[in-house]
Amino acid sequence: MAKRRLVIILIVLFLISVTITACRRAGYWLIKSDIPAKSDAILLLMGSLADRVLETSDLYNKKLADKVFVVEENMNGSAILKQRGVDFISNSQQAKSILTNLGIPSDSIIIIPGEAKSTLDEAIALMEYLSVRTEIDTLIIVTSSFHSRRAAIIFKRVFDFHENQVVVFSNPSSYTHFSAGKWWRNKENIQAVLTEYLKLFNFYIFENRR
Description:
Layout: H1 2-29, E1 41-44, H2 50-61, E2 68-73, H3 78-83, H4 91-101, E3 109-116, H5 119-130, E4 138-143, H6 148-159, E5 167-172, H7 187-205
Parallel strand pairs: 1-2, 1-4, 2-3, 4-5
């Protein structure tokens, strides 16, 4: 009996150790960073704005691409505001304005229609946009660091259905305030990690069927 209890205790301790190690590594796994080569375009994913526009500007200034794509983001109530005569600037237009202020020529920034509500919507909108623009076959996607793994997974899945192969490089923003190694010490980082894993689960179980 004592030997059996010892085995059970050792197994429990082992499982606890594995769980702790996995949790400590959970933040690192969310970050996917490729070494982007010169590409045909940069795609700025909507969401957290400041860190992503700064990274996009840096990549453009390094001459890694001469075009920047932004998919129009769906904003609830925006159409009603416009109907009521309110001068409303969407997040996508705001991103373009900031990028031009950072020195990127306005005609190098293309806003793609999409009314996107998610990363999957952005990927689908871009795939449809590129379906008649076969000259684009390499792309750098810029997003917040903790979002980069999920974004890369989604874009790879969507572009599996694209007629022309598009090579996608994942470029997490170096301006994101995210501590991958100590994410559990900060409530914003905890929220980011838990949210990303929940959204990954949702993608594989539900969204992936689209």
